[in-house]
Design goal:
This protein is mainly alpha-helical. It has 2 domains: about 120 residues, Rossmann fold, CATH 3.40.50.2300; about 60 residues, Orthogonal Bundle (Arc Repressor Mutant, subunit A), CATH 1.10.10.10. It has a 3-stranded parallel beta sheet, with helices on both faces. Strand 1, helix 3 and strand 2 form a beta-alpha-beta unit. The longest helix has 15 residues.
Amino acid sequence: MRHGLKQILADEFKRAVFGEARNAQEALDLVWKENWDIAILDITMPGRSGLDVLRELKKSKPRLPVLVLSMHPENQFAVRVLKRGASGYMTKESAPVELVGAVKKVMAGGRYVSASLAEKLATYLAADSHKPAQELLSDREFQVLRLIASGKIVSEIARELSLSVKTISTYRSRILEKMGLRNNAELMHYAMQHQLVE
């Protein structure tokens, strides 16, 4: 995937220099060592999540435009990453067609969102619209919500995130409380209904 995207961009930006990272730490190291015009970031990567990397990037290089390119549908992460400072969000299925335009727009200081996402954002920002319950969650709570909804038990989640079982249980309790849910079954139903898991 990285190679294909790089080729698309190399065809359009003839004199561009590219850097590639296989995981979160490599991505951060590359950004700290060089002055890039743009970072294209995935949400799902080995090591820390793309949301963690985005937070670090915006803290250390607030002016660096970050375009998030993800396999996850817009309704799962788009609003979240835009609120955290990303300059754009696009899904991998739309990437080849729209990537060059998105990169140009973001590098020019603009923001990139698809037409369908723009409509969702307009609804989200409307004065009389109330936020979906998952928007009340922190990034880590949202991550735990998605893992529970995908059928993982607390000990598996703790292992995957390198946290204690007690910490994951605390996150689970907070999620249920913030979202007004009573148990994992309701949480899973909510996640499926709102397409928060594949």
